[in-house]
Structure formats: structure tokens, C-alpha cells
Amino acid sequence: MTRTEIKSLLQTDPQEQDVLVKGWVRTFRANRFIALNDGSTLNNLQVVVDFEQYDESLLRRITTSAALSVRGKLVPSQGSGQAVEVLAEEIEVLGDADPAVYPIQPKKHSLEFLREKAHLRMRTNTFGAVFRVRHALAFAIHQYFHDRGFFYLHTPIITGSDAEGAGEMFRVSTLPMGDPPRTEAGEIDWKEDFFGKETNLTVSGQLEAEVGAMSLGKVYTFGPTFRAENSNTTRHLAEFWMIEPEMAFYDIHDNMDLAEDFLREIIRFALTHCPDDLQYLHDRIAQEEKNLPQAQRRPMPLLDTLQFILDNGFARITYTEAIERLQRSKPYKKGKFQYPVEWGRDLQSEHERYLVEKDFQTPVIVTGYPKDIKAFYMKLNDDNKTVAAMDILFPGIGEVVGGSQREERLDVLQARMAEMEVPEHDLWWYLELRKFGTAPHAGFGLGFERIIQFVTGMTNIRDVIAFPRFPKSAEF
Ligand code: 4AD
Ligand code: MG
After folding, report:
1. Fewer Cβ close by (within 10 Å): the C or N end of the chain?
2. pLDDT grade, residue 110 (50/70/90)?
3. Cross-strand partners of 27
4. Where are the domains of the chain?
5. Does the pLDDT at position 167 exceed 90?
6. Between β-strands 364-370 and 315-318, what pairing exists: parallel, antiparallel or unpaired?
7. pLDDT score at 273
8. Ligand 1 atom with minimal separation from the 209 CA
9. Rounded to the nearest 10 degrees, how much is the dihedral formed by the CA atoms of 179, 180, 185, 191?
């Protein structure tokens, strides 16, 4: 007999047919009702046990998280919680879960506690929902680009360059750490290293994606990226996934239009394909917020926030306007901002959130940042002060997307690299792109975990990636 997954059983017309199901016990009530879950859906299957037919010793093994195989009949449910249930005829315990030591009991655990049990937390409703939504978003992203003629480009994970020029890289080396080979000058001799040069884990696939765009026209990457920044926040990971589309012949406006449409469409996909999971997360947050003071609650419930994005355009302002608006704001005048607001300084999370949550109350795209606070590859505007950068700011999250039109003029790019002390020798190939058939092009990077945070309403980024990597933590 073949096994049927619970998602499909729950949609099957019950006609007392024989079925075989397998899954993990969520709860076992009154020695009679097993709530069984196999991960295919948020919803459990109710298995009804006639306890007089089974040995006491078997019944005692039906505990939370034990793995079961159940053969029985699919019938209309007598109870109110579900349309169908299975009357068990044969129960086999595939794997016990001793309740005396199993760490996750059917009570409420904190997200912090569950983070330490990352190998088991996916069996909870919350994490099951988050990871099914994560899958749906990944799928939506590939579909979005595929449908629009983009090619998926796999860019390298080990590179010799610092794409962002920020120096936040993890070194990749096979040299002995205690006693590395030295040059005559006494410096570490990287020529002796595995690749014959200094290498690191990539911080972004953008520079290689530009190569793709300048030949295939439209490409995107979707891969892991690594940042050795010591940021212990709810929005930073040391290993995160990034989606980076890159398009030839696009300017900054085309880039913004694409990014806005893209974000809206993948959110729409999640709403269409994950209604149960999102409803669960929506209710969970509403429940959680009951105990919070009004000021700490979300401005809008989760599903309303997602719908709002679909129904409303993003605001678009320049960095200079953003600074002016911030300087006119109440929190600024009352000295409530922790960081200074001044033309030339980067916007901090508190400023971004003010613009999005208080001022515009919609996502905001900020363009035209000062050149000194952005990466070397961004196109210099005619004012010689700002670059054609764009950041997209979302409620509750801040920056979800960073992008720009790229500097396609060789001489300007070289001057910017010199100014920002980005060595040319590692990037000779990047410069050659500007020598041979250069053309305007643009692209952006979406932080995958940040958009998952937004869609699921999870407040900590460590709860939307299966095994988070952050300072002092690389368990699992
Ligand atoms: O703004 P960033 O650094 O831009 C780039 O890397 C460009 N090369 C992208 C491009 O134009 N192709 O990063 C892009 C996005 C951010 O907006 C943010 O959402 C996310 O990546 N991000 C992080 N997410 C989690 N943890 C971190 N430490 C992140 N750093 C950036
Ligand atoms: Mg950025």
C-alpha cells in the first residue's frame, strides 16, 4: 500500500477507503485522538484510536514527536475541527520520542529557546509555516525571473575580490594558521596558498552578474553570501541568501520599476500559495501582541500589511529629500533620534523606520545617495556628489533591497576606485567590461531573509533561516 501525504488526504472525499499515513505525533488526547503531522501542511490529521484494541504498551509510545505509520479508514469526521479523520486499524511506532527527555513539549516555548533546538524546531507549527513560506518565496522568485526572460547565473562562492569594498570578508585559506609561509619581507606568502592568491567567501555575486548581464542581457543570481560584520541585530546574519538581478540597458528608473513589481509579485505569490501558513502566522502575532502595550504593536495585522503592499505604490524620494524630511520631523526636533541626521551621513535604521512607518506609511525607495557612503561601482550623477543608488525600505524591516545603476564609464570608474582605495589589479576583468562594449546597466540585491521576515512577520532574522550563522554561533 502506498502512503498518502496528509495535505492530500485532508482534501480527499472520505469513503471509508483504506489509507496509509506516516508522520509525527503532535498531541495524543484522551488515549483516543492523535494529531498527526507530516510537514506537507500546517494542518494535522486526526487519527482516532479505539484504545481497547491496542496494547497499553503501544499506546504509551504514542507521545509528542514520535514517528508513526498508521493504516486505517478515511471517514467523515465526527468532531468539528476537521472534515475527515482516519480510524486506525494498525499503528506502528517507527521512532519513539521519550517525553522524559524530548525537549519540545506541546506547550508554548520562546523563540529563543527553540533557536537552540534548531534541529527540532521545524516540527512546530510556527517554524513549519515559516519554512513552507520560505520555499514558496524562493520558487516565486525563480518563476518571476524565468517568466520575464532572465537567466539564472551561478556566481562563485569563493572569490578574490571584495564586491562591496567594505572589507567584511571571511578568508578562505589552506595555509597553516600557526606557521604560514612567508615572503622575504616577512609577510604571509599567499602565492603558496591553495589558489595562489588571497581569497574569501563572496559578499555579493553582483560583479560577476554584471558580466552575465553584459552578454546575456538579463540575469539573476540566487545564492548564499557571507559578511563578517560584527552586527548582533535582528536583521543581520553572517551567512544570508541574496537575489541579485542585473540588466543591460536599464537605468535607475527601470531598475526601481522592476524591483517594485518584483517585490509585489512574490508577496502576491505567497498570499496565493500559503494561505493556511500565513493565516497561522497572522493569528500567532495577534495573540502575542495582546499582551503588549499599544505602542509596541504592529501598525497593521500581518495579512493586512501584505495586502497593503499589493494595493499601494511605493513612495520614491531622493536622499536629500529624506534628510530634509527627517530634519523637519518631530523625533528630530525633540532629540529622539540616537544618530545625527546630516547630509553626507548614512541613514540609520531609526531614520529609515521613521520615513516608512511614520512619514509615508508605505515602502519607500530612496535614490541619489552621497557617493562617499556607497560602493565604488555606482554611477556618478552629474552633480558629482551623488550616485544613482536606490535602497528600498520596508515597514518593520528597514532596507530590504540595495541597488544602483552601475558606472559604465571606464575613466570615471577608475577615478572612483582610486578615491575609495579599491585596488584595480583584482578587478582587471571588471574594468575590461568597460573597455569592450560598455553600456548602461543596473541591478539590485534583495536580502532573502529580510523579505521572509516581512512576509512571515517574524521579528528576528535568525528565525527565518534553518541554521542561522551569526557572531559566536555556528551550531548545526
Ligand atoms: O545593500 P547590499 O550590501 O548590496 C549589495 O550587496 C549589492 N551588491 C546588491 C546589488 O546591487 N546587486 O545588500 C543587499 C541586500 C540588503 O538590502 C539587505 O536586504 C541584505 O542584502 N543584506 C543582509 N541580509 C542579512 N544579513 C546581512 N548581514 C545583510 N547585509 C545585507
Ligand atoms: Mg545596502
Report:
1. N
2. very high
3. 35
4. 6-103, 123-168+203-463
5. no
6. parallel
7. 98
8. 12
9. 170
* Residue range 346-356, pLDDT digits in tens: 999 999 999 99
Cβ pair 206, 246 in contact under 8 A: yes
Domain with residues 123-168+203-463, CATH architecture: 2-Layer Sandwich (3.30)
pLDDT value for 429: 97
Give the number of whichever ligand sits closest to the CA of residue 222.
Answer: 1
Q: Whose CA is nearest to atom 27 of ligand 1?
A: 236
Q: Which ligand sits closest to the CA of 206? A: 1
The domain over range 6-103 is classified in CATH as 3.20.20.70: no
pTM of the model: 0.97
Extract the C-alpha cell encoding 408: 559604465
Cβ atoms of 391 and 365 within 8 Å: the answer is yes
pLDDT of residue 306 exceeding 80: yes
Q: Could you tell which of 145, 240, 405, 462 is best to mutate to test the pocket of ligand 1, judged by most ligand atoms within 8 Å of the CB?
A: 240
- Confidence check: pLDDT of 162 > 90: no
According to the model, what pLDDT value does residue 407 have?
A: 98
Span from the CA of 469 to the centroid of ligand 2 (angstroms): 19
What's the pLDDT at 78?
87
